Amino acid sequence: MATVKHAIGEIDVVAFTQPVDKNETLTQPPSSQRGVGKWPAGTTGTVVSDYGDHKMVEISDDRGVALDFVTVPVEQLKLVEKHSLH
After folding, report:
1. To 10 degrees, the CA torsion angle through 36, 75, 14, 33?
2. Which of 55, 60, 74, 80 could form a disulfide with 13 if both were Cys (CB 3.0 to 4.6 A apart)?
């Protein structure tokens, strides 16, 4: 049985596979060891911009109010819910 890997696109819900801090995502390579981060692994958000190998993710509270926007390498994201067409 073949495994199908879905591409992550805009409006998809994703989870961080490791802690993410806005300042670290843009200044440190994905392979480097990162600190604790503002957003722990498992934090979920919605992809709002697709930059190919990086995605901008909106993190919102339970009422839908945006708390933060972080740009994260795609290899640090896990698809939770597929909503995009590609």
Report:
1. 0
2. 80
Is 74 in a helix, a strand, or coil?
Answer: helix
pLDDT band with cut points at 50, 70 and 90 for residue 3 = very low
Assign a CATH topology to domain 13-81: SH3 type barrels. (2.30.30)
Q: Give all strands of the β-sheet with 54-60 in edge-to-edge order.
A: 66-73, 54-60, 44-50, 13-16, 77-81
**For residues 45 and 82, what is the distance between their CA atoms, to the nearest angstrom?**
12
Predicted confidence at residue 21, as pLDDT, reads 77
Query: Domain map of the chain by residue range?
Result: 13-81
Q: What is the mean pLDDT of residues 29-50?
A: 76
Q: Which two tokens stand for residue 64?
A: 């839908």
